[in-house]
Design a protein that fits this description.
The protein is of the alpha+beta class. Helix content is 19%, strand content 27%. The radius of gyration is 22 Å and the shape is globular.
């Protein structure tokens, strides 16, 4: 439950001798009443604290006497998301679950920057008042998620039984999930694994990265489905673990970033040089990561029956494939 009286906005504090030696998250939680240490710690990890204008990324950093700290605290989110009549494609529905094909651009649950217009708002309108008690308070029924600009199959729980069973299945990876990704370049091996712990990028706390220490173990398995020369490949990716942005981070780390990725593709890839028109322009201008959750299979949480769902690549990604197929030589 959010606290409407909690402080928000830019909060300033000049560290005093009494603050010396204290963890900065504990110090600021003590100074700014209404914010817990864990809340301040999260804000620091989200790159919302500056000391004398310099970004602070370590919640355990000792307070520096005389330094001016500015903590950017976003306004509190409403305790309960509100129902909104937003259409979404339903693949299957019964009393326990909804399986849908999430379109790119739809945020799954409310968060700072996207307080409404989300899938949760749409589900509340579709399912009615009883849906609010399923699972987490601000994200009822959400047992897994896709990034805003990733399209594809999702399952949502409509009962507490379904929520508990599906949450356990996702935690145990006891299901079948496959993604399609258009990436720059072609991996040397037609099948393989990308392994590397994922944590916050120390240079940019809003990004994830493969890190040498402090991250969480992650493993992605891939298979090359198609390739257009050495420029672009269509991969099938499967997750052995489920970390934030895992496929995007691992492919970028391996030198094959996802086409259109706004976070992990930061320069024009060398592989683009061999592309002619119209593919060159369309791929470089693609406005989102070309990533689609194509398949989801799991046991029904009540009956145990095997359920399998597949969705086609969406039209915007199909347009990229069509442009690539017009390239001299086409796909192999």
């Amino acid at each position: 439950m959010s606290n409407p009286s909690a402080p928000h906005g830019p909060l300033l504090h000049t560290a005093t001798p009494d603050d010396a030696g204290k963890r900065i998250d504990a110090c600021l939680a003590e100074v700014f009443g209404g914010l817990s240490r864990s809340r301040v710690k999260t804000l620091i990890e989200d790159a919302r604290l500056r000391r004398d204008g310099t970004l602070v990324t370590a919640p355990a950093e000792p307070a520096r006497v005389g330094a001016v700290y500015v903590l950017d605290v976003p306004p509190p989110i409403a305790a309960w998301p509100q129902p909104q009549a937003i259409p979404f494609p339903i693949l299957f529905e019964d009393k326990d679950i909804i399986v849908l094909d999430k379109p790119a651009g739809l945020v799954v649950h409310p968060a700072p920057g996207n307080l409404d217009g989300t899938l949760v708002n749409a589900l509340l309108a579709h399912c009615g008042p009883g849906f609010t008690g399923i699972g987490a308070e601000k994200r009822p029924g959400i047992v897994h998620r896709l990034d805003k600009d990733t399209s594809g199959v999702m399952v949502v729980a409509k009962t507490q039984l379904a929520n508990d069973v599906l949450t356990a299945a996702f935690a145990a990876r006891d299901l079948d999930r496959a993604y399609r990704a258009l990436c720059w370049g072609v991996p040397a091996a037609p099948m393989g694994e990308i392994e590397g712990a994922i944590g916050r990028d120390k240079r940019d706390r809003k990004r994830m990265a493969v890190v040498a220490a402090g991250g969480k173990y992650a493993l992605t398995r891939y298979r090359v489905l198609r390739a257009w020369g050495t420029s672009v490949a269509m991969l099938e990716c499967r997750l052995a673990t489920g970390r934030t942005h895992q496929i995007r981070v691992h492919l970028a780390h391996a030198g094959h970033p996802v086409v259109g990725d706004p976070i992990y593709l930061r320069r024009i890839p060398a592989a683009a040089r061999s592309l002619g028109a119209p593919a060159h322009g369309q791929l470089l201008d693609f406005p989102r990561q070309a990533l689609h959750a194509a398949r989801l299979g799991f046991a029904h949480p009540r009956t145990g029956a095997a359920l399998n769902f597949e969705t086609p690549i969406p039209p915007d990604m199909e347009a990229l494939i069509a442009a690539l197929d017009k390239k001299p030589g086409g796909a192999r």
